[in-house]
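#struct-help
A.M.: can someone run this one for me? Single chain, 467 residues.
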Amino acid sequence: MLDEATRTAIFKLHEQGHGSRAIAQALKVARATVRQVIRSGQRTVLPLLRAERCEPWREQILELHAQYQGHLGRVYEDLLKGGANLSYPALTAFCRRHRIGSAPPPPAGHYEFPAGREMQHDTSPHTAEIGGVRTRVQTASVVLCYSRTIFFQLYPRFTRFECKAFLTRALTYFNGAAATCMIDNSHVIVAAGSGATMIPAPEMAAFAERYGFTFIAHEKGDANRSARVEAPFHRIERGFLAGAKFRDWTDLNAQAIETCEAWNAKFSNKLHASRRELLAVERPALIALPLHIPEVYQIFTRIVDAEGYVHINRLRYSVPYTLIGRTLEVRETIERIDLYEGPRRVATHARVQRALDTRVTDPMHRPPRGCGYQLRPQPAPEEIELLTLEPQIAGYLSALKLAVGSRRPPLRRLLSMLRDYPRAAFLSALVLAEQYRLFDLDRLERMVLKQIAREYFVLTPADESDE
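D.P.: on it. Structure tokens below:
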């Protein structure tokens, strides 16, 4: 079928008096076709009208399409049961031509990104071979929209802790931050709302404020708005992870940084430069990093168990055995676990990823072989004061502690008696109590009072005559 330009040329040459043979030779078309076009008198191409096999069942197709909520397989089965003689491709083509269950796609938008205006952040699940095991990973990526500079890392999970640690590394890699960071309404960053009404979580808003940028979110369903960061995920999956093997998580992320360096240094025909060159142009427009960039960590409070370990995320990390029973502050960073007793750091371990229910032991935290450590209970303050005031009662104290066994000896009352009663009467009663193994302090107190009565309240004959 001839197009409208050729048909117009045929009529123009015909009006100039040229014959069909000359027109056919000039336009390289058949002479019969030239005659047919001239007889039709139509310069435009008329729509091709042909009978459609599905047209007799239009009403049934519309009704079944609504009934089965667009499931054309079910629609086709019911049409065959109703006696329709048509194929499934004919049904799907009919629905496409007449826009049954579909609408023409809207045109894609175009966005302008001046230097330093915006960066985009997103995550995507992938699979990587780590230590010989196929492992599910979360790939986090940040792209500067103007220079297309990319930075990505991979984690076993992606919470707000990993998000802040990753963004800190990314901004350090870029040596600056764009004014806004576009996200996809992720719950890791979003506290409420979506799109233009999105409200970031307070800790994420404080993190962004530290580096001078703000989080914004695109509207739901508008994935094209974050195309700068969405597009590289396919390249990461096919160009970085496919067929690659990694020793551990550290090796994985180290190779990810090397890949970022290679991709950013490669010349792009589309950009007419490398991303590194464009980053040099964009860097003056980026927000400068603060003078001090604190390391991202999360804090836990743990009590050292009887075996000398603290428990973090189903993992056990050893501490010096002398701290058994103490309360420690645990600071978990992306790479290590630091344990503090007050302001002093007492232990450090490399952070373990994914190996749950395991123990990480530093041999320096265990007692030397053959020198088992036994906790020696410290004497109570009352016992120290008793021995300081009167060293002679050490024998009775030892016998008293053996007598009460695991129970706490009544040292406070014994100290009160030593302070309140005359020292000679108290010690005389204590000698008798130790001799006869009397550890009932009520009885000991009665013995002291009886001794005092005999020595301090003696009646003379003159006192008796007065009575």
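A.M.: thanks! The radius of gyration is 44 Å.
D.P.: also worth noting: Residues 261 and 347 are 35 Å apart (CA to CA).
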